[in-house]
Design a protein that fits this description.
This protein is mainly alpha-helical. It has one domain. Helix content is 69%, strand content 4%. A two-stranded antiparallel ribbon has the order 1-2. The chain is globular, with a radius of gyration of 21 Å. It starts with a helix and ends in a 14-residue tail after the last helix. Belongs to the binding-protein-dependent transport system permease family. LivHM subfamily. It is a multi-pass membrane protein. GO terms for molecular function: transmembrane transporter activity. This is Amino acid/amide ABC transporter membrane protein 1 (HAAT family).
């Protein structure tokens, strides 16, 4: 009875007695969730175009952020460095299409999966060669990202909103919404879905695989850059940052691998859920819930709805 009280009654009582702390926790979870959704979006875009999970998305985020910071360290003005980094990500997209994807058209999914692993380790090695392995600081001031905090009087207490978190959430929401509309309502979006369904059939009706893949990988690269900037601003920019991309896995399981709205909803569920779990239930388990709760939620979804909330349920007839 004491255990049930501690698990189900005490946390709810804390939420009711201190609504300002609840609001603070939900806000922090919301910001993390939006950034998780932005990471997951990169995975969704490439999966929709190639039908394979892109293991390189996490290192693309790190590589983009390191390129930006590395150029700034060489004395390149911040906004020129940002433009050059975008150009580098376009070059990466062209290189992946020409050297990796084009020779593997119509190959089994496992071949493409292994190819993305190869891209991952190439970028790790190349990135360490060029930028070194030491953590770097994100150029937040040079990019005119805000600092400081806003204190709101709310629910009889105070809720602190970091200005950087507000900017990150706003930019991420705009990017996610814009990309969702672009890929759902435009001709390129329809072509992307055709490529994901069947490479050979898409080719037969005039869809250019090389153009679609370059567009999608470049878009995923820009998303990775934006994600790297904001996660790098919250911590240091280093190769350890790619661990954050692993949180995209439960997000994708919840939302569905083929759904842009699913990435958004899944990110918010994971972000808010892990913050609430850490703050209200963490003390019962000695803390650390935030590092594994997302995977437990994903496991439950796999058992009862493996295609995710918005994923397509595929039935193959034999």
């Amino acid at each position: 009875m004491d255990l049930l009280h501690a698990v189900f009654v005490d946390p709810v009582a804390q939420m009711i007695s201190a609504p300002d702390l609840l609001a603070q926790t939900v806000w922090e979870g919301f910001v993390a969730g939006v950034l998780y959704a932005l990471i997951a979006l990169g995975f969704v875009l490439i999966y929709k175009a190639s039908g394979v999970f892109n293991f390189a998305q996490g290192i693309m985020m790190v590589f983009a952020a390191l390129t930006l910071v590395g150029l700034a360290e060489k004395g390149v003005p911040a906004w020129i460095a940002l433009g050059l980094t975008i150009a580098v990500m376009y070059g990466l997209a062209v290189g992946v299409e020409r050297l990796v994807l084009r020779p593997l058209v119509n190959q089994p999914d496992i071949i493409l999966l292994m190819a993305t692993l190869g891209v991952t380790y190439f970028l790790i090695g190349f990135g360490e060669l060029v930028f070194g392995g030491n953590p770097k600081s994100m150029i937040t001031k040079e990019l005119f990202l805000p600092s400081g905090a806003i204190n709101l009087a709310l629910f009889g207490g105070r809720v602190q909103l970091q200005k950087l978190d507000i900017a990150a959430a706003a930019i991420a929401i705009v990017m996610v919404a814009g990309l969702a509309v672009f890929f759902q309502k435009t001709r390129i979006g329809r072509a992307l879905r055709a490529v994901a369904d069947d490479h050979q059939a898409a080719l037969s009706v005039g869809v250019s695989l090389d153009q679609i893949w370059v567009i999608v990988w470049f878009t995923a690269g820009v998303v990775a850059l934006a994600t790297g900037i904001f996660w790098g601003a919250r911590s240091d920019v280093s190769f350890a940052l790619q661990v954050v991309s692993l949180k995209a896995l439960p997000v994708l399981i919840l939302g569905g691998l083929t759904s842009v709205p699913g990435a958004i909803v899944g990110g918010l569920i994971i972000g808010v859920g892990e913050k609430l779990g850490e703050f209200y239930w963490g003390p019962l388990l000695g803390g650390g819930i935030e590092s594994w709760l997302a995977y437990i939620i994903a496991l439950v979804f796999l058992l009862f709805r493996p295609q995710g909330l918005f994923g397509e349920k595929i039935i193959e007839r034999i």
